[in-house]
């Protein structure tokens, strides 16, 4: 006899929730290149397709394009919006067309990061130590894509702290490759980074103090959707509202993906090893009904 997963068995015993499930199970999830975003988007794609019959497409676009496309109904949901500061500029033009739902992660971090062996503790200190952080011949801060929120905040930090440095924008993987190379050689490097991120489990890193508060305080991550999504799919809305992750669960998911080297295979491996956690989300969503 084929073994039935606990999630499927739970679903079979949930007539109320099943009745709330959308008839049209085509779903477009907007993603960006942040490590945790790729991780959770692939996790939910696998769960919804394999266990609940959805047809899920991941649409990887820039932040500006994501919000615009969602406001027009071309993207249904996205798993990550940082509030109240980081993603507010992206949300503001579309706040009447989009809906921010419940939080799933609390206590984020965002800012400039160096390896712990670097004898610099504050962004302000970079002004006098800029020459220590040369990259391709000039003092640099290594960042991710120029359209990201953290890139804009880093431009603000360079201006406010009057740093004689430039931000070098590239992809997240390229930035991490540069960090890995510098770390292996114990060379100075400063990068833009955020938590949750698997890098803090892999390397001994520290945030530089930000006395001017350019990068803001710790924030909360919510999922969000086009404005009418909750009425179109109340079941999935309740499930995602019940979804919660912390440093252990999210860090473990990201670390598994990084170790495996593939977001789909890594997310599947994490799902297989954490059925109890997933079933708790489903049970919490049922309780909400």
UniProtKB/TrEMBL annotation:
Q: What is its main location?
A: membrane
Q: Give the CC-aspect GO terms.
A: ATP-binding cassette (ABC) transporter complex
On whether DNA-binding is a keyword of this UniProt record, the answer is: no
* Extent of the signal sequence: 1-22
Q: Name one GO molecular function term.
A: carnitine transmembrane transporter activity
As for subcellular location, the record says: Cell membrane
- Record domain ABC-type glycine betaine transport system substrate-binding: where: 25-272
In terms of SUPFAM superfamilies, this protein maps to:
Periplasmic binding protein-like II
Q: Gene3D superfamilies from the entry?
A: Glycine betaine-binding periplasmic protein, domain 2 (3.40.190.100), Periplasmic binding protein-like II (3.40.190.10)
Q: Which UniProt keywords apply?
A: Cell membrane, Membrane, Signal, Transport
Q: What are the GO BP annotations of this UniProt entry? A: choline transport; glycine betaine transport
Q: Which PANTHER family match?
A: GLYCINE BETAINE/PROLINE BETAINE TRANSPORT SYSTEM PERMEASE PROTEIN PROW (PTHR47737), GLYCINE BETAINE_PROLINE BETAINE TRANSPORT SYSTEM PERMEASE PROTEIN PROW (PTHR47737:SF1)
What protein name does the entry list?
Answer: Glycine betaine ABC transporter substrate-binding protein
Q: Which organism is it from?
A: Halomonas eurihalina
